[in-house]
Amino acid sequence: MGYILGTMFIRAYEQGERVYLSMLCRGYGKHSFLLVRKKALCRGDVAFLCLSMSFVIIVPVAIWLGPARLF
């Protein structure tokens, strides 16, 4: 088990190094940044968020209660 975990750690570390070097070759570095403009939330975004969160909460509760105890 220790051999497998050690191998996975070394492979993940080496893959991270390869990704880091490839990003440096493409111009990403310590002082580079991506321009992301912040946008304020509008009413539609807030309504969608509330509807989604209520759906995520209500559906599992309804399944847990079952159709016999729901009404």
Written account of the structure:
It is a single chain. The protein has 71 residues and is an all-alpha fold. The chain has two domains: 32 residues; 35 residues. It is built from two helices and no strands. The longest helix is centred in the last third of the chain and has 28 residues. It is flat and about 55 Å long.
Number of domains: 2
Mean pLDDT: 87
- State the end-to-end CA separation: 52 Å
Order of helices and strands: HH
Specify the structural class.
mainly alpha
Shape: flat
Helix amount, in percent?
Answer: over 70%
**Strand content of the residues, in percent?**
under 5%
Radius of gyration: 24 Å
Query: What's the β-strand tally?
Result: 0
Quickly count the helices.
2
Largest sheet: none
Task: Give the low-confidence spans.
Answer: none
